[in-house]
Amino acid sequence: MIDWGAFLIVAAAALVSTAVVVSLYSFGLRFQSLTHPDATTGEPVRPGWARLLSYLCFALSIGAVLFGIYLIVPFLHG
User: Is the pLDDT of residue 52 over 80?
Assistant: First the structure.
């Protein structure tokens, strides 16, 4: 017999975790491409805070993926 409550919990957790990882990665890409023209030369310049936020989003995305692998592989946690 299928435990439908447990199935729905796993399905919801998979959906939410997928949305979080994809959103973090896409925010990282968005911050990576954020530029504005320099006042003196007119060339595109990336602000320091945008670079920091992009690296933070990428790191959180990688951390979430590694945590998911840790949860899936039984050898890693017991």
Answer: yes
Owner of token pair 């796993």? 10
* 8 Å CB contact between 76 and 70: yes
Question: Within 10 A of 16 (CB to CB), how many other CB atoms are there?
Answer: 10
Radius of gyration of the chain (CA): 19
| Residue 18 in tokens | 């997928």
Report yes or no: 59 and 27 within 8 Å, Cβ to Cβ. no
Q: Rounded to whole angstroms, how far apart are CA atoms 58 and 53?
A: 9
Paired strand residues for 37: 44
